[in-house]
Fold this sequence. Notes:
Elements: H1 8-14, H2 21-24, H3 30-34, E1 41-46, H4 50-59, E2 66-73, H5 76-90, E3 104-106, H6 110-116, E4 121-124, H7 131-140, E5 144-147, H8 155-170, E6 175-177, H9 185-195, E7 202-211, H10 227-233, H11 239-242, H12 245-248, H13 251-261, E8 267-273, E9 288-294, E10 300-307, E11 314-321, E12 324-327, E13 332-335, E14 344-347, H14 356-370, H15 377-396, E15 400-401, H16 402-407
Parallel strand pairs: 1-2, 1-4, 2-3, 4-5, 5-6, 7-10
Antiparallel strand pairs: 7-11, 8-9, 8-15, 9-10, 11-12, 12-13, 13-14
Helix pairs in contact: 4-5, 7-8, 8-15, 13-15
The chain binds nicotinamide-adenine-dinucleotide (NAD).
Amino acid sequence: MLNSEPTRRDFLKTGSALSLGAVALGSLSKGVFAADGDDTIRVGLVGCGGRGSGAAAQALSTEGNVKLVAMGDAFADQVESSLNGIKSQLKDRADRVDVDEDHKFAGFDAYQQVINSDVDLVILATPPGFRPIHFEAAIAAGKHVFMEKPVATDAVGVRKVLAAAAEAKAKNLKVGVGLQRHHEEKYLETIKRIKDGEIGDIRALRVYWNGGGVWDPRKTREEVSGEMEYQMRNWYYYNWLCGDHICEQHIHNLDVGNWIKDAYPVTCHGMGGRQVRTDKKYGEIFDHFAVEYTYADGTKMFSQCRHIHNCWNAVTEHAIGSTGVADVHGGKLYKGLAEAKENETYRWRNKDAKNPYQVEHDDLFRAIRENTSYNEAENGAYSTLTSIMGRMATYSGKEVSWEDALNSQISLMPEEFSWEATPPVVPLPDGSYPIPTPGVTRAV
Ligand SMILES: NC(=O)c1ccc[n+]([C@@H]2O[C@H](COP(=O)([O-])OP(=O)(O)OC[C@H]3O[C@@H](n4cnc5c(N)ncnc54)[C@H](O)[C@@H]3O)[C@@H](O)[C@H]2O)c1
């Protein structure tokens, strides 16, 4: 490039303002962006499903000029339905969607085409198996990122995300991760009080994602073109794509435990299986897990997640302290041991509290505009590893250490990505999939 003057676009891409005079005056400001008359943050969406569409609408609802300019999905039909969904969510701001036909991409390389479009930030909201590949490519190309949790399904992916997170820091790129409890006033207030000692020293944690489960498989074999499409359409039930529900959903609650402890567990053991959701259309994942994690100081985190209808349900986190207990999800603190009304010492209340899904985008976009440091990728990777470690322990029936989990060489991902390629798991002759067997399965 003959002209070595950085362009506004370079600014937004890399935040590489350190070489610019503006930085000598302090942090980047909106005024810096506006200097050449355009402060628009151009967004690309990769993974046009439910959450990707929601995240795009939230990104486009942040302050300042934002435009959605490119979209990519494995399936073209998803791009079209997402485009309509985003516009209807935005209502009078629908003009912020500006995706022409040349910037709608489908297929396994759609992510690269979105990244290669003239975008400043990419939203990564595919099934989590792809996240490490997509995140690595986005950071390599100098893009800011919002990525959904979990950020991987195996330790190989976690390490890839950690490496890209370090690169993002070095390049001054901002990264948000969809663990939105970190942006939810109720959690922020309650956890601050716990950390300030209002229930004494933390002795143990209890965390749950017990519910009826998610969507049933969306396509039958007759409706798709082969095994790869079958698994991609029904991704929740295949570990290379989803990581099992301990990883896919329960990560939220495990992450809250880590947040309260300001640490990650050093070991865990657990048990679980597939007792009710056993039909072969439900792929290879378990329907229940119970895992006991131990932190370095001996604190335990007792964790359960279940996908079975008509049972005791809870999506909550609780802390047991030396002088009281906390219902973190409920935003309540109590003296003594019982979460009873008469013991209540604090109850979070704010009927005007903001939607954390919106706040996480407000915070990320503000950091980009004001050039403040913002990188949630490392915690996202370590909380993902916490959930993967629980799955490893449950599938194998063994105790698993943090080090062994982090250094595991088992890759769940395919060698090749194409509709003709063979996925890493294939059905047995009766159409069912091999199910992990504790005591037999090697998972680390
Ligand atoms: N933070 C939260 O509370 C929250 C809530 C829901 C979902 N999520 C996360 O968002 C992610 C997506 O979940 P969802 O509910 O939107 O699923 P979804 O099935 O509705 O959407 C996923 C989309 O990704 C597409 N896709 C699959 N592989 C792709 C590839 N290689 N390249 C491009 N597109 C690909 C699918 O075709 C689909 O359109 C998951 O990681 C999930 O955990 C987070």
